[in-house]
Specification:
Blueprint: E1 16-18, H1 24-30, E2 37-42, H2 47-62, E3 68-73, H3 79-83, E4 91-96, E5 99-105, H4 110-121, H5 128-141, H6 145-158, H7 163-175, H8 179-187, H9 197-213, H10 219-227, H11 232-244, H12 248-261, H13 269-281, H14 286-299
Parallel strand pairs: 1-3, 2-3
Antiparallel strand pairs: 2-4, 4-5
Helix pairs in contact: 2-4, 5-6, 6-7, 7-8, 7-9, 8-9, 9-11, 9-13, 10-11, 11-12, 12-13, 12-14, 13-14
């Protein structure tokens, strides 16, 4: 499934090409009369360049011809970079109608590069991968786990570092109680993206499943809570178990009840558990949004 990461200077097609001092006028100035052209100044010894260039190439191709990318090795061709006052690399300049109109330095994340391109050409809309991801999410919501898994895997076949697809596959395996499979997919995540919110949510989902796995039948916990509403540990464990069984609103209700009765119980454990729920469910999930509102109302009342 995994493929090699592209290296600057190795690809050539209609949208992405290398240039030299001799061909710069045609490749950049002339081409920029038709659409914006991004010029990526890089060098073989530059680590951040190797991070940025594949992201640039991906974003340019996703723009579907609205913009082109030209790469220039400044070790071999330093003149143009010198004329433009490039002090450090990676440096990217956008040319339009034969003139530099915008630019940035350093290795930016994909989202910021997309925004940079959109400043030049207007909204790009969802990429093909984003559309497939949305369809996979829809299938997952409808319970078609097999269909969703196929689409998530197809995204990863094209983009092994797509953390949204990786995180979704982790959660999918948690959903079918395959925690070992979930951990295998989580281990595929690139180290540089380890703190991505989607991956944090995937880790939280695994931790919650492991936590719930030791609880067994919930009937005894339910009885303990009914017999003693102040038995916070039983209520806490019941909430964890309910969440694992998809009864998320009931889980939220029980944790909020602990916060209402004793905010400091177990070193603020009920609130922390709620936050982990929200992380696992995702920031835009309806239950996350409702739960956060209720928690805030309770804490600041």
């Amino acid at each position: 499934m995994l493929s090699d990461t592209p290296v600057p200077g190795t690809s050539s097609d209609d949208l992405v090409k290398d240039t030299t001092t001799a061909t710069f006028r045609q490749d950049v100035l002339a081409e920029s009369m038709q659409q914006p052209v991004l010029v990526d100044f890089w060098a073989p010894w530059c680590g951040p360049c190797k991070q940025l260039t594949p992201i640039l190439e991906k974003a340019v191709r996703a723009a579907g011809g609205k913009v082109k990318l030209v790469k220039m090795n400044i070790d071999e061709h330093p003149q143009i970079a010198g004329q433009l006052g490039v002090q450090s690399i990676p440096a990217v300049f956008a040319f339009q109608r034969g003139q530099p109109v915008d630019g940035f330095m350093g290795a930016l994340p994909e989202s910021q590069i997309k925004s940079f391109i959109e400043r030049l050409v207007g909204p790009l809309g969802p990429s093909a991968a984003e559309e497939i991801l949305a369809e996979a999410d829809r299938l997952m919501t409808e319970g078609d786990i097999g269909g969703a898994a196929e689409l998530y895997s197809a995204i990863l076949a094209q983009d092994p570092e797509n953390v949204a697809a990786l995180a979704a596959l982790v959660k999918l395996h948690v959903e079918v109680s395959d925690l070992e499979g979930a951990k295998r997919f989580l281990a595929m995540a690139p180290e540089a993206k380890a703190n991505d919110p989607a991956l944090a949510g995937a880790r939280a989902a695994i931790e919650l499943a492991e936590q719930a796995g030791s609880l067994g039948d919930l009937t005894d916990l339910q009885r303990r809570v009914e017999a003693d509403p102040a038995d916070h540990q039983a209520r806490f464990d019941l909430a964890v178990g309910l969440n694992a069984r998809g009864r998320r609103e009931e889980a939220v209700n029980h944790l909020l009840e602990i916060v209402r009765r004793d905010r400091n119980w177990n070193d603020d454990g009920a609130r922390k558990q709620l936050v982990q729920f929200f992380e696992a469910w995702g920031p835009t999930d309806a239950m996350t949004l409702a739960g956060r509102r209720r928690l805030s109302s309770l804490l600041f009342s």
